[in-house]
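pls ignore typos typing on phone
adenosine-5'-triphosphate + seq
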Amino acid sequence: MNDFLKVKHLNMKIGKRKILKDINFSCRKGHITGLIGPNGAGKTTIMKCILGLYPYHKASIILNGTDIKSSNILNVGIGALIENPSIYPFLTGTEHLVMYAKDKNCIEDIVQALKMQSFINKKSKDYSLGMKQKLGIAIALLDNPQLIILDEPMNGLDPSSTYLLRNLLLKLAKQGITILISSHILSELEKIIDDVVMINNGKVILNVSKNKLEQQSQSTLFLSTNHNDKALKVLLEQGFKAQESNGMIKAFNISSSNLNELLAVIINNDIRLLGLEHKENGLEDTLLKLIESENN
Ligand SMILES: Nc1ncnc2c1ncn2[C@@H]1O[C@H](COP(=O)(O)OP(=O)(O)OP(=O)(O)O)[C@@H](O)[C@H]1O
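k done
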């Protein structure tokens, strides 16, 4: 597997408090990794350590095969937006981009891609939250970075800008750019990420591809049969979690591995299936359950 970024044994203390506890994860080249977790979990701190904004000592942060140290971070082609973008109120958007860009030729494409033409030449003191956020994202995309780190980039973006950003990130990933992104909007993140790294209380509790997570995710099955009482009885006898609900049988925690088994129980007991509805739990549900179970 072609890992573009590897974080190994990252520990970090602020004062006496351990903020990060042996963080290990990788980001595949040309893939989008979602860094997720509850408030205060340590996501921003991880991003700041990768960027050399917080010191780390024994950890290895390996970018494209080379261990980067905080000191040479500026030379390794990372674009980032962490927390609120640093914006100077009396400069226009264009002046910011010119100031930050080494290669001025890339500016126009980025402005167009993020549809910033209508405000890019106005002073940023007059920008809305979403306009400032777009400018911050634009700054992160300057100079064709090979790794893009975005901390809550959807903050303040309206639905059409969110859509624009989503498609832009997917396009960049297709071009081979590696992206690490955090967001609390899991339903939005779900649409773009390939891999999930979940942080809770300064530790990695999950590092898996989205496909694998989807396979593991459980769902609820609604069954309508010619003999609901009998169906419920045999399902419960066979250890399924089920209950009667509005004239249907509601079976919980159904995954690809036990779905066939459930159907076999119904059929082998001479019960006729009249209707079947499968309600998938989305990534959001699966992850929320995971955090809940970690915290209990
Ligand atoms: N400069 C600091 N001084 C003291 N504590 C800090 C500092 N920066 C972060 N922390 C603490 O480190 C922990 C992790 O914070 P971090 O900002 O990385 O979390 P997060 O996962 O990004 O949260 P959120 O989703 O709310 O942005 C928190 O408990 C926070 O209080």
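The longest helix spans residues 159-174. The chain has two domains: 3-209, 218-280. more later
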